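Anyone? Bumping this.
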Amino acid sequence: MKNSLKEIATGFNSLITGMRITIGQFFKPTVTVQYPHESLKMPERFRGHIELVRDPETGKALCFACKLCERACPSDCITVEGAKLDGAKKKSVTQYVLDFTKCSLCGSCVEACRDGAIRYSHEYNLASTNKEDYIMDLFKRLENERLETERVSGVVAQASPPAGSPGVSLGVPPAAETIPKPAQAEAPKADQSKPEPVKAEVK
Amino acid sequence: MIQAIQNSLSAWWPEPLRLVLFLVGILAFVGLNAAYLVWVERKGAGRFQRRPGPTEVGYAGLLQPIADAAKLMSKQLIVPAGSDTTLFRIAPLLMMSPALMSLAVIPWGRNLAACNLNVGLLLIFAFGSINVMAIMLGGWSSRNKYAIISAARVVSQNVAYEIPMLLVVITMIMVTGTMNLTEIVTQQAGAFWHWNIFRLWINPLMPVTFLIFFTCMLAETNRAPFDMAEAESELVAGAYTEYSGMGFGVFFMAEYANILLGCALATVLFLGGWQSPIGHLLGNWQSTIDILLGVFWFFVKMYFLVFSVVWIRWTFPRTQFYGLLNLSWKILIPVSLVTLILSSAMMKLFHT
């Protein structure tokens, strides 16, 4: 009798404790990231596919086509071409094709690079139905980005840029096809919507 | 003006018209609630797990139930080969109609009961047993092993939980001396310490009685943590496994209608029905606003209980089957017998 009463009391107490905990959770803010509408910022050491590093002074690629990464790659997914431009001391990269269909994200290329000219990108929205989207020319991509930022800042500063002329004058085709489309689509959105719950990212 | 309408409802409007109005009202109320309690359930589940719940269809997912209903209605009703066709088709209706009929005697506010029966409580419990049979028939007629296991579980579970529930109800009938629900609520007039749950001078175990009633209500409506009948992880969807389209939809609506009925009944029996928790501070009961205020208080109490049902569902894991029967036979029935004997003794000794 005494034991069973005690059992009832402890059981009831544990039920109340459980309900108190859940109602506590009920009033806390949600931690969901509404994925297609917003995405988390990747942590600093996230290992995505590689990308070229920009020289902060010139705004061009640091890479001078030494091809160490090409040699280090175990799955032969990197093709680097370089040329010596007029008046330059070093070669500079003209083509840097990453075949992401073959890449196993081992990171040997980043380790092999002595000048820190390539790094892991933080992009992960890379899904596509088109195989060609994964054969990316990282150099073209970098150049396009540079031209785009120049064009935008030009618009802000002078408000009279010859529309589309930078791309034409430097002979770089608007090679948006080499960038995976989802990534292209996500990039501006990810900027706008700050992923509000930062805790989830840390965990 | 509402006073006038109400007078006319009770006085010179023909009785059939009044009943039709109540019928339409109850049908609409149950339909709306069944749809939106699903939304409440999903939203609540989300919040308890720190998710936002449905957000995409309409503002805060408010159109989700309509989308679900449209989907269910557009689906084919498949009757499995070899099943008992008639019973298979009747079972969902048999589950839905008792809940609707029982709601007729619930007093939503002063003078606001479709049918002010003297044996309202008896009617509810008479009909309450039918939905057990409905689930059993549904499970048995679908010719599916999971459905049959579920049917067997439903019967043993509901038989086990009917007993403490009825013992509690007998206690309440003894305390109040009537089976008329309107009368029961009228007795609890005044501030909240007049409610039956706090009538400690008749029975100091009254809150326990309320808890037993609420637990049994959860078990009778097959809600978590007593949802052995449709234990998804073991029995696919239990008795509803073979149902598709609106057959499943009606079962689902009936589940929520039963929850609504159970919570309304708990409100009437223990929480003072339409009585305000702060008493008659806002004027006398004859004015129209007070009647609407009564309906408001009724809904506040009822939906608080409905929220508790959701809260309990997303807090506790499903009990094991023998755990469930142990709880009923070893704890709830003895305790409810104790409350019955205690309150009858107290009434005999102190309140004759």
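Late reply, but here is one note on the structure posted above: The mean pLDDT of chain B is 83.
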